[in-house]
Amino acid sequence: MNDGPIDLYAQRGYYDATVTSRARATGIGSLGEGKDTESGATLLGGVQFYLDNFTIRGEYEWFNSSDNVDAWDLSVSILFHFGR
Prior knowledge:
The chain is an all-beta fold. It is built from no helices and four strands. It is elongated.
């Protein structure tokens, strides 16, 4: 489990993704299609707070694409523990 009430963690990695998009209009048909590939570095940092029957987790993830377009994600989760 854990050694204390708070854990910090981090990770780094590489991603490779393909994004496909299509646009259609009723009565007209296809307006266009697009397909793009992205790759780059990703970094994640997080913290977990352990309470009696649940854990609260916060994470920040950053993506650096090959086209110099940055994206990020901030999330908060609650994990419930059963049968402890």
